[in-house]
Specification:
Structural class: alpha/beta
Distance between the termini: 13 Å
Largest sheet: 6 strands, parallel
CATH superfamily of the largest domain: Glycogen Phosphorylase B
CATH architecture of the largest domain: 3-Layer(aba) Sandwich
Helix content: 40-55%
Number of strands: 12
């Protein structure tokens, strides 16, 4: 299979990510190449030599993406990253182009696994579950084993260094829970001025915060040693927070509507504005060691579903279905 990824990123050629578990890992997984949209927009038929072209962050180049899907001989996959509703809230002009793209491509790489029937019923386009391949290093358990003890702190963060807009993390809910529990808390990945304002506004004193650090550092030194991670995020997608928490042995209290949360931490699901339930879950994790261990052990078993090998298998099966 000859694969090319097209995105707005400004580089061309083969690519092996130096940043674990990012979308560009699909290129290295299939020994493919990446082309920036700027480098091919004047001659999109350069893409005819490939079997499969993945269109990533195509909301930045919807006109060109639609032209590629309609005119090139390759099969095309559109990956609406983040949550589909972020795209459907755009102004009508972009909404219409986005809608056309979902119709024009051969496959939709759905990061929201539970919405596959929804995609297929509305746009009549075959969809499959497509998430960032999770590295063997993370899922091997080696990082989990290196964590020698838990720091008695709650962790509140954005999307682990991947740039999730902090306004979608539902930070007020997290801080409301922290205030009710009165427990030590670490905020990370949140702009310091915003964090300071929220902390002062809520009158919380057992709290500290840090900025962005490398992904591996987060896993080993921040998430792994934390007692738990609060993740009542409005952004669903495929939750890296839940996946990393499961892999390193840190329970995640999160959005009941997240398919990832449901698979990995079903006992820690809550409506994202039900602070009373989330406070109860936090307290139980602190006070019930048997429950804590059971939650973590189950999550580690289930997280293998997101491995690179399983992601690659799902991708290949979906592509075979449209290649004929």
């Amino acid at each position: 299979m000859k694969l090319c990824m097209v995105s707005g990123a400004d580089f061309n050629g083969s690519f092996v990510s130096g940043h674990m578990d990012c979308m560009f890992d699909w290129v290295s997984t299939f020994n493919g190449v990446h082309r920036s949209i700027a480098s091919i927009k004047d001659d999109i038929h350069q893409l005819d030599e490939y079997d499969i072209v993945m269109l990533v962050d195509a909301d930045r180049f919807l006109d060109d993406a639609n032209n590629i899907a309609l005119e090139c001989s390759c099969k095309t996959i559109f990956v609406p990253e983040g949550t589909i509703y972020r795209h459907l809230r755009t102004p009508f002009g972009n909404y219409e182009k986005f809608h056309r793209l979902l119709q024009n491509v051969d496959l939709i790489g759905a990061v929201e696994e539970d919405r596959i029937p929804w995609y297929e019923s509305i746009w009549d386009t075959k969809a499959f579950f497509m998430h960032t391949p999770t590295s063997d290093r993370l899922l091997s358990g080696s990082i989990r084993e290196k964590v020698k003890g838990k720091v008695e702190r709650i962790l509140v963060c954005c999307n682990l260094g991947f740039g999730e807009p902090y306004t979608q993390t539902n930070l007020p809910t997290s801080l409301g829970i922290v205030k009710k529990t009165g427990r030590e808390t670490l905020l990370c990945e949140i702009p310091p001025d915003h964090a300071r304002f929220m902390v002062e506004e809520f009158g919380i004193d057992k709290i500290s915060y840090m900025g962005r650090s490398p992904y591996l550092f987060y896993m080993q030194e921040v998430i792994g040693p934390s007692k738990l991670l609060l993740n009542p995020s409005e952004l669903i997608g495929t939750s890296r927070n839940a996946i990393v928490g499961a892999a390193v042995g840190t329970p995640v209290v999160g959005n009941m509507h997240s398919h990832t949360q449901q698979r990995l931490f079903p006992d820690l699901c809550a409506y994202i504005y039900d602070t009373n339930k989330m406070v109860d879950l936090v307290n139980r994790l602190y006070e019930d060691p048997i429950f804590y261990k059971d939650v973590c052990d189950r999550a580690f078993e289930e997280v293998q579903y997101y491995s690179k090998a399983n992601a690659k298998k799902r991708f290949e099966e979906a592509v075979e279905g449209v290649m004929g």
